[in-house]
Amino acid sequence: MATAVAARRRRADSFRIHEDVAAMDDAEMHGEALKEEENGTYRDDEEENGTYRDDEEEVEPADDQESNYSESSEDEPVIDVNIQHDMEKLQSSFSGLRHRYRLIKRIGEGTFSTVYKAEDLQYDHFDNSWDIEKENEKWTPPPLKSFTSQSTTTLGLAAEDPSQHLQRRRKPKYVAIKKIYVTSSPTRILNELELLHDLRGCSSVCPLITSFRQTDQVVAILPYFRHADFREYFRKMTVRDTSIYLRSLFSALASVHSRNILHRDIKPTNFLYDPLTQRGVLVDFGLAEREGLDCKPCLCHEDALMRKTRLRNAVMGSTAPAGGYPKQDTRPSRRANRAGTRGFRAPEVLFKCTEQTTKLDIWSAGVILLTILSRRFPFFNSADDVEAMIEIATIFGQKRMKAAGQLHGCSFETTIPTIGTFGFSFERIVLWSTCRSDTGETLSKDEKLAIDFLNKCMELDPSRRISAQEALSHDFLRMGLEDEVSPEEEEMDIMMA
């Protein structure tokens, strides 16, 4: 029995899962609740979840990271035979899918999903309020009457239906079809679809158009956004370009966080950005979750006095030898959500904080800014949690890392000689990574403003880290706004020309 999420119903008001009659191409949608539930959560937080990107917790080494949307927006290339076979198999699995969408190419592949670019063949039959591209078409001049149409009217012949003329002239509309593998948890799939539905209408956030289910196979239909590969343009970005890029990203985060939703996988390949239009869209909510769901109290939310008292009691009751650790550690294991991509996970995630907040997304966005300023991608390239903490400690120093660990009831000790007591400033790191430390050059005024913003994003204490809404008021993200022309002024200029 095929079912579908009727998020694309005409004027849909609520998120429900529906039944699709398999024998009809333009089937009516009937209500049937998705009842599959798993006893456990969709991830085991005690495992090292080495995964790829969008539905998973950790990914392969960052220099090989790809997004399910990671391929640049190029025209149709030559399709591999195996990919063509998979596309044909997908179209055959869902009755009527080939009459609704024309699959073009594969644009991304992950551990739990594959994404294809497709043409929406029935675009004109549905409410397309999700289509932000329509705004760019409002100044498209009307079609001129051709000599042929005038002649046929003069001769008394049947004139062409204007709607047919416009339909023939309309540019193809593309969507992204996300095929979620059957190995994914039904609970996790439903969570992602519900969050996307709740985020509809949010600024710079990819909306859900609709979704279909055939037995245990689920596909989600999402808008297709033209974008460029981050690795192709980030080294060419000026400070002002970076400000515009992050302004769009933080606008999306502000919308997501205002609904108490954690994205958990902020990285360049999950933010589809077009340098030409200077517009970006946040995608991939496979790891997203609601803040405060299934969490336990953590010391980082206690006041300083209570935290100090509990830490002292823990140390006094410890049986660990001085300068070492017990061979038979009888302490209970600590379980916490460690979902995310290696190199972009916040310190509280590495320290297994049991009460994580939306501030972990801000840290990940700060890593993106550090990547752009340093011209190095990936900036962090650790293989596991221990190496990730060593990389962070190299920058912030042992003293601050020990304090960060104590926030979550953890201790941080290392004898690695390259990790100093106080670490390095971001200003020094940027100068060194851009080969300016030996020339005596200093950062420009705009770069210093970016560094100030970076310090607020990559704060080890999540309670002191800047929020997405506060970030939009920072001078760095407001850079150049005074020079922009509002749409009303632009329309007036066109009318006066």
TrEMBL record:
Q: Where is this region: Disordered?
A: 1-77, 318-339
**Gene Ontology biological process terms from the UniProt entry:** mitotic DNA damage checkpoint signaling
Compositional bias segments (type: Basic and acidic residues):
12-43
Entry keyword set: ATP-binding, Kinase, Nucleotide-binding, Serine/threonine-protein kinase, Transferase
* One GO molecular-function entry: protein serine/threonine kinase activity
Q: Does the UniProt entry include the keyword Acetylation?
A: no
User: For the Protein kinase domain, which residue ranges apply?
Assistant: 101-477
Q: Which domain of life is it from?
A: Eukaryota
**Cellular compartments per GO CC:** nucleus
Statement: the UniProt record of this protein carries the keyword Thylakoid: no
What's the protein name? non-specific serine/threonine protein kinase
UniProt source species: Lasiosphaeria miniovina
Q: What is its EC number?
A: 2.7.11.1
Q: Which PROSITE patterns match?
A: PROTEIN_KINASE_DOM, PROTEIN_KINASE_ST
Q: Enumerate composition-biased segments (Acidic residues).
A: 44-77
